[in-house]
Amino acid sequence: MSFPLNGWRNDIEDFDALNAMPDEIPVLAMRGTYTAVALDPRVVIQIPNQDQQGACQGHALTTSMEWCYTIASGKADVQLSRAAGYYLSQIRDNIRGDHGSCVASGVAEAIQNGIAEEKYWPYPTRYDPTKPKDFAAYQENAKQYKIATSRKMTSYDGIATFLGSGQGAVEIGILWNSSCDHPVIDGYTTRGGGSHALAFISLSERLDKQGQHYLWLANSWGTNWGNKGWAEVSPTAVTQMLSIRSNVMIGLSDMPAIKPREFSLADLKSSLRI
Predict the structure, then answer these.
(1) Phi-psi region for residue 140, left (φ > 0), alpha (ψ -120 to 50) or beta?
(2) Cβ contacts of residue 140 below 8 Å, gap of 6+?
């Protein structure tokens, strides 16, 4: 099966905007002040399928935002518009045609305007950036789903702390190759491949030899890829990904301030009767 690559436009990414975002130092300062929570998000987050569109960034963005909503509300009843996440980012990037989008533009849209629910702008079977007829209704609904803060993540410890303390999710743009194409990613290399956007959602219960958590990675290639659309990524592989200067990892949170947030997947599953 052929999966689409190069939907993350790292060739025109606004790295200046990403580098200007707040850093992870306040996140790292929380270490030791909370009990890290390892959660299996597969029961509450639907893995979408971007099909053959270059919409990975829009999918990574909305999946990250859905996780923020889930841990904030204790509900798992929302799917945000993947079409909006992709096409509105393209407008900001001044990209015409099905040629991908940038992380910085998607984050800007999520912070400034929010992304509405899927029903207000459904994902088309083919590339079609036409705005919905009732775009005003889309805009009104989008106000409910905004990202409050974005943060440039530069270390495994920072990302693990961000996820384990319930801040939100981490949208990533990386060079993708065969080393990534496994349900468990133990190592990462930059040989060959293309560019791709995905999202780190939570800590896995899988540990490395040093007792550090793997991270759950959500893809957008449907459930036929990896472990039903997911992969677990080792601390070593995360560090190797971060060693590539063109790879980006941005923490997204619905909270305006950094502080630990208690969240129980067991309670959520109980409320949903899963």
Answers:
(1) alpha
(2) none
Sign of CA dihedral 77, 159, 236, 248: positive
Tokens of 3: 């999966």
CA 265 vs CA 33, 250, 269: distances in Å: 20, 23, 6
**Nearest CA among 34, 112, 32, 40 for reference residue 70:** 40
Q: How is residue 109 written in tokens?
A: 């849209």
Give the integer Cα–Cα distance in Å for 87 and 116: 13
From the list 62, 94, 39, 50, the residue with the least C-alpha distance to 215 is: 39
- In angstroms, the CA 38 to CA 16 distance is 33
Collapse the DSSP code of 175 into the 3-class scheme (helix H, G, I; strand E, B; otherwise coil) and give the result. strand
pLDDT tens figures, 83-118: 999 999 999 999 999 999 999 999 999 999 999 999
pLDDT, tens only, 184-216: 999 999 777 899 999 999 999 999 999 999 999
3-state secondary structure of 60: helix
pTM, whole model, 2 decimals? 0.96
Please report the domains of the chain, with CATH numbers, ordered by start residue. 15-272 (3.90.70.10)
Angle, vertex CA 144, rays to CA 264 and CA 100, nearest 5 = 95
Q: Which of 226, 231, 241 has the alpha carbon at shortest distance from 172? A: 241
